[in-house]
Write the C-alpha cells for this entry.
Amino acid sequence: MAMNLRLPEETAAALQAEAERTGQSQQEIVRDAIGQRLHLIVEESLEAQMTERQRAWDSRTVQPARVPYRKVRPRLRLPKGTTSLGLLDRNDRF
C-alpha cells in the first residue's frame, strides 16, 4: 500500500539524519518503526534484517567519523554557458 506521510520538520530532519547514519532508506526506517509499534516485528527478525554496516557499527568494528558529515559546496563556478568540456584543448577531448 502506498501512502503520503506528512512529518513535522524536526521529525523529518531526525529521520533523514538516522537514514544517513545507518545507511538505510527513510522508508525502511519508517516501516521498521511501524512494525515495532504494531508488534509485527519481534527482536529476532530485526536482528536478521540488520545490515552488515549496522552490525559493524554496533560491535564497534567501525569507528564513528571524527568530523561530522557535511554537504560539500562547489568551490568553482563556471560562467553561464561554459562547460568543463569547453575548457579542454581540442587534443584533450576524447
Summary: The first helix runs from residue 9 to 22. The chain is about 45% helix and 0% strand. Residues 36 and 42 are 7 Å apart (CA to CA).
